[in-house]
Structures are given as structure tokens and as C-alpha cells.
Task: inverse folding
């Protein structure tokens, strides 16, 4: 027996072969991630040509299940962990080197999860920023530019109000969740023709069973890279749901940064032929824009809100009433801290990045606004 084979046999006494293979995959993933961080062009290449294949495969594998596989795994995790630990302790007592083999096997599962993140999704955080790909000059955004864009978006909302149905609880879309996803598909098809770095394929957006309770975390949707699923908290009002569907589909197609997924969702919504999808895009962007205007500009904010069609303003009021129940919660504080830490670990400004979508919106509408308000 060669020296190499003897060494390998000795290693496998302490580390199961499957775990050793996962550790090797982890090393490859770590090297790739270092390359992503240091070479944005390589990150873009990997995201568009290799990660896209993994995302497609994962999404199609979970397509056949009508429920969220990720949610099912989380629900089942206490039972799975119990039986796994029971099996591990039994193995440790009955096998030589049981402790080291069990510890390495458990560690390899964590390595697998991190590797799947790198192969499926991690490159999206490290590529060139979206404004660079779109040829936008974002620069620093002034208060006047924010206000002008908010006025422009408000006028778009007013023009759509007659095409939208309203009830005592706010606006309604008048069609099902699955029809919403189909409309988003059609809009993504058009967008992908214009921007080929956005992946185009069909996969469902899964409605989460725990949506009502999830609202206390202030999370309206989530993309789970380990199952390839876009998941929706459907407890939110419909104009939020429509926009969130487009947002999570953006993540599923390789747009990782939150501000960029928000902007792609905006383009998908306003680029749709459906008036309610357009309305949803403009209303969500309006909220981001007015939130970015400093509170010291009270007079300008009052003027902008006063421009809104009464029905649109009513929709915002009903949303605020809906959210009052969930506004202050320990769950939201915990989830916010975790999400902020995760986003910062990926080289973004954390949860602040969601609102940075306004920079992209201002740059996108700058030419139209200039011709209308400053000819």
C-alpha cells in the first residue's frame, strides 16, 4: 500500500469520506469567495454563468412541491435535530473514534450550507453595482432631486387611481396570487431582453403558512438560497405583496443586494401591462422616497402628500393602520439585528441598503423629471 493510501486510510478513521469531500468543497468555496471579493468581474461572470445554473436547478427541484420546502425544513428542524443528535450520541458510544467522526460529520453539514450559499448566491453581492451595469450616474442625491422624483411618482399614482379598485381596507388587485406571479413572469421576460445579466426562468413564489406571525418580524418575503425558493409573507396588503413578489423573484434571478432587488422589482412592476402592478411599484417607491426626505423638510413633505389623489392617500393610511399592530415587537428587533449583520457581512451597508433604492430611482427618472419640471 502506498504512503498516500495509508495516510488517506488513517484520515478516514477520524473523518468520514463524505465529510472529507464536503470539507474539500468548502475549501473550493472559500477560495471562490475570496476571488469574488477581490475580482468583481469574476463575481459577475460566476453569478451569471455558473450560479445561475445552480439557482435554476434548485428552483426546479422544489417547483414540484406546492408548499415552501424551506419553511417545512424549518418547521421540522427540532424533530430532525433531536433524532440526529440521538443518532450521533449512539454512534459515539459504539464506535472507535466516534467523537471525532461525529464532530467532523456535523461540521461538514455547516460547511455544505456555506458552500451552497457561495455557489448559488454569494457572487451576487460582490459583482459590479447595478448602477454601473445600467450606466446610471447616481452620485450624491440632493433633497430637491428626492422631492422632484417623489412628485413625479405621485403624479403616476394619481394617473393610475381610476384603474385601481379600492375597498374599505385599501386597494385590491382583483386577481389571484398565481396570476400575480404570471404577470411578473411576463414583465421579467421583457426586462431580461433589455438587461441580459438578469436570469430568466419560471418558478413559483411560495406563500408562507406562518405569514401572520412572520409579520411581527417585519419581513415581507425571503429568498432561501438552499432551496432556490422565493417565499412571500402574504399577510401584508396587496400592493405590498405584488412588489414583494417581484423583489424575491429578483433575488431568485441573481440580484442579491437589497437596494438592487428593490429597484429591479420597481422596474418589473412599472413595466407591466397591468395597472395594479404599476400602482404597486409606484406606491412602494413613493414610500421609499418620502422616507428618504429629511424630516426637517416638513413643508415639502406636506406639499407632496397633499398632491396625492385621496384614494392613494387613503391606501397609505390603511397600510399604516394595518402595520400598527406589528410596529413595535421584540421579534422585529431580533430579526432586524440578524438581517443587518448578515447584510453587512456581505459588504453592504446593512438594512440601510433597502432605502438606497432611491438613488437608483432618482437616476432612472432624472431625464424625464428634467424635461417636465426643469425644461
Result:
Amino acid at each position: 500500500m502506498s504512503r498516500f493510501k495509508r495516510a488517506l486510510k488513517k484520515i478516514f478513521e477520524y473523518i468520514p469520506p463524505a465529510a472529507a469531500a464536503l470539507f474539500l468543497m468548502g475549501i473550493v468555496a472559500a477560495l471562490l469567495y475570496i476571488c469574488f471579493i477581490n475580482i468583481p468581474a469574476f463575481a459577475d461572470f460566476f453569478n451569471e454563468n455558473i450560479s445561475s445554473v445552480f439557482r435554476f436547478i434548485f428552483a426546479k427541484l422544489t417547483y414540484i412541491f406546492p408548499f415552501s420546502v424551506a419553511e417545512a425544513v424549518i418547521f421540522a428542524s427540532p424533530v430532525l435535530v433531536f433524532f440526529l443528535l440521538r443518532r450521533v450520541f449512539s454512534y459515539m458510544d459504539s464506535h472507535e473514534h466516534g467523537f471525532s467522526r461525529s464532530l467532523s460529520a456535523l461540521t461538514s453539514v455547516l460547511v455544505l450550507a456555506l458552500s451552497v450559499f457561495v455557489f448559488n448566491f454569494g457572487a451576487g453581492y460582490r459583482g459590479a453595482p447595478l448602477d454601473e451595469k445600467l450606466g446610471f450616474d447616481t452620485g450624491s442625491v440632493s433633497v430637491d432631486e428626492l422631492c422632484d422624483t417623489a412628485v413625479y411618482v405621485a403624479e403616476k399614482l394619481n394617473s393610475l387611481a381610476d384603474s385601481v379598485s379600492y375597498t374599505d381596507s385599501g386597494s385590491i388587485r382583483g386577481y389571484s396570487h398565481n396570476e400575480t406571479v404570471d404577470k411578473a413572469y411576463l414583465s421579467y421576460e421583457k426586462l431580461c431582453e433589455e438587461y441580459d445579466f438578469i436570469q430568466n426562468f419560471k418558478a413559483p413564489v411560495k406563500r408562507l403558512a406562518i405569514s401572520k406571525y412572520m409579520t411581527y418580524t417585519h419581513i415581507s418575503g425571503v429568498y432561501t438560497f438552499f432551496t432556490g425558493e422565493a417565499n412571500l409573507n402574504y399577510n401584508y396588503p396587496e400592493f405590498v405583496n405584488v412588489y414583494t413578489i417581484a423583489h424575491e423573484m429578483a433575488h431568485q434571478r441573481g440580484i442579491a443586494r437589497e437596494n438592487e432587488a428593490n429597484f429591479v422589482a420597481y422596474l418589473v412592476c412599472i413595466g407591466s401591462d397591468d395597472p395594479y402592478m404599476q400602482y404597486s411599484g409606484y406606491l412602494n417607491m413613493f414610500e421609499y422616497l418620502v422616507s428618504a426626505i429629511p424630516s426637517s423638510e416638513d413643508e415639502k413633505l406636506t406639499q407632496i402628500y397633499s398632491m396625492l389623489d385621496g384614494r392613494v392617500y387613503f391606501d397609505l393610511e390603511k397600510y399604516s393602520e394595518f402595520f400598527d399592530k406589528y410596529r413595535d415587537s421584540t421579534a422585529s428587533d431580533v430579526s432586524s439585528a440578524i438581517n443587518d449583520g448578515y447584510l453587512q457581512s456581505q459588504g453592504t451597508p446593512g438594512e440601510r441598503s433597502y432605502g438606497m433604492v432611491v438613488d437608483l430611482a432618482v437616476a432612472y427618472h432624472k431625464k424625464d423629471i428634467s424635461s417636465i419640471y426643469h425644461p
